[in-house]
Design brief:
Beta-Lactamase; 3 domains; Rossmann fold; 19% strand; 535 residues; 15 helices; alpha/beta; 6-stranded antiparallel β-sheet; 9-stranded mixed β-sheet
Length: 535
């Protein structure tokens, strides 16, 4: 293994501690000297580097900024050196990659532990020995660099993190229940950040995806399922990571989180079991994918399912942690271009629209599209209207009243006439669920709120102006209660009663329309808990 003693940041010299050295501790640089052993100091709140006294030279005594990425007793280059060495050893032990992934990772952990222990023994010959905790932190960082989010993993592991937005070397972290926080340095250079993006793309299994001058925009998923979008077209290289906090969610979990109430929970389950075609809509970040995933978990196990996604986020082909069996599922994922243009098409690109023809040949009983953004709207609606009952998808819509207009817009962009689009929508979509997203409470000490505010029935006839006729089944109770309450009985309620089964509800073998009118299960259980000025 390469001797890392000669690295400028990990040598045996002990220079006088300067204020900038203290600041270096907060961005992951090597501790240059160590104060005498002292009793443990209670954790202190975050302190700006300029306010830290030079006497604080023990890493344990420096106020920690919530486990910043790279807050280690060594430079990040040491982690990369160890990672490269372990990867080399792993390749020698399993050159053909024949091991099961779980076994390969277990072997990697063992090799990491040994490599770090060997390195730490050499390091201690000329420096203050590292503690067991520090060695473990280095080992974790090495493993994260190989299989997880590398230098950014500690941010992604924080409770409540929803988005990590990197602008050059600076990161902004968005949380569910507290204000945004900014980290001044999460990489040592723009080149390192770009290298991180490309390493994560390779780990995701997308060898064709990379951030280069020829492909200055890239999107992929991380090993933990987080969605990454990166670009070199911004002022500085930028990365946005959307973390899926609720990857294995069902409707029950969404009820606990406040996205649906008990009536909506069982109504939507009945819609899935009765094979209604469902469209989940809302603004960006509203939780559309989480709700679609939960609805997909309600599809009976004896069916055949195809999922089509630009980036894999539904994971309906994986067993649920609840142990509940699911349908036979084929998960298709789009492929990005390698940057070349051949004719009027990007070389190597396979879009969701391209995958539809193949997916339908799998004789699936349902098709689920992660998100409809463009021309794939037409094959999606055609699949719904031509026998794909029970199919589902999500779509970005800013306001509930704009749902039909947004559908028509996408259809006309795909080449359809407006009248034909109206008829196709009416023949395809049965139910539209709108999720609202309120985030203003965060700045007042509250949390973000995601909840179903509207549910519409789309009738299979066109009405005034040639537009599809819709009925509001659930809608807001009033200005101070924006969450959905029952408004009107759907025309398909008989199908819900005949085709749904609720074995987990004692004495209720199928959906009952009286649940909507009598509310025996309760509604939202109290007003929305707001902390903003409108509360």
């Amino acid at each position: 293994m390469a001797d890392t003693h000669q690295h400028p940041g990990v040598n045996g010299h002990q220079p006088a501690m300067r204020r900038e050295d203290i600041a270096g501790l907060l961005t992951g640089h090597l501790t240059q000297q160590r104060a005498p052993e002292t009793p443990p100091v209670p954790a202190a709140p975050p302190v700006p580097p300029a306010a830290v006294a030079p006497a604080l030279t023990d890493p344990a005594a420096v106020p920690r900024l919530a486990d910043l990425p790279g807050e280690l007793p060594v430079d990040w280059e040491v982690i990369e050196t160890l990672q490269a060495e372990v990867s080399k050893q792993l390749a020698a032990r399993d050159p053909q990659r024949l091991m099961e992934e779980a076994d390969r990772r277990a072997l990697a952990r063992s090799l990491v532990t040994t490599a770090v222990a060997d390195w730490a023994a050499k390091y201690a010959q000329a420096n203050v020995p590292l503690s067991a905790t520090q060695e473990q932190a280095i080992a974790t960082a090495v493993f994260n660099a190989m299989y997880r989010g590398g230098r950014l993993q500690s941010l992604l592991d924080e409770d409540g993190v929803e988005d990590v937005m990197v602008d050059g070397l600076r990161a902004h972290i968005e949380y569910l229940d507290r204000p945004r926080r900014t980290i001044d340095r999460v990489a040592d250079s723009h080149e390192e950040l770009i290298a991180w993006v490309n390493r994560m793309a390779r780990l995701s299994g997308h060898g064709e995806r990379g951030l280069t001058q020829s492909t200055p925009m890239v999107g992929f998923r991380m090993p933990d399922g987080s969605r990454v979008t990166a670009s070199m077209l911004t002022t500085r290289p930028s990365v946005v990571i959307r973390k899926h906090r609720l990857r294995d969610t069902g409707l029950e979990e969404l009820r606990v989180w406040g996205t649906v109430n008990p009536i909506l929970q069982y109504f939507l389950r009945a819609c899935v079991q009765a094979r209604m075609n469902l469209l989940v809509v809302g603004d960006m970040g509203a939780g559309k994918t989480s709700l679609l995933r939960a609805l997909g978990r309600e599809i009976p196990a004896d069916e055949r399912l195809v999922t089509l996604e630009s980036d894999r986020e539904l994971y309906l082909d994986e067993p649920a942690t609840s142990g509940k069996p699911g349908p036979v599922t084929y998960a298709f994922e789009a492929r990005q271009s390698n940057g070349e243009i051949r004719g009027d098409k990007k070389a190597g690109e396979v879009t969701i629209a391209d995958m539809f023809a193949t997916a339908l040949r799998y004789n699936a009983t349902r098709v689920v599209v992660g998100e409809v953004r463009s021309t794939e709207i037409v094959p999606m609606l055609q699949a719904m209207s031509a026998g794909g009952s029970g199919s589902m998808c999500t779509m970005h819509v800013r306001r509930p009243h704009a749902i039909i207009s947004r559908l028509v817009q996408l259809c006309t962009e795909a080449g359809m006439a407006t009248e034909a689009a109206h008829h196709l929508i009416a023949a395809s979509v049965d139910v539209v669920v709108y999720i609202a997203y309120d985030w203003d409470d965060v700045k007042h000490g509250g949390r973000k709120h995601r909840y179903v505010s509207h549910v519409y029935e789309v009738h299979d006839v066109v009405g005034e102006g040639g537009r599809p006729t819709i009925t509001e089944i659930f809608g807001p109770a009033g200005p101070r209660e924006p969450r959905a309450v029952f408004k009107n009985m759907p025309s398909f309620v008989g199908e819900l009663e005949n085709k749904s089964r609720f074995s987990d509800l004692e004495g209720a073998p199928s959906f009952q329309r009286s649940w909507l009118t009598d509310n025996p299960l309760g509604a939202w259980g109290g007003p929305l808990q707001r902390k903003g000025p409108s509360s």
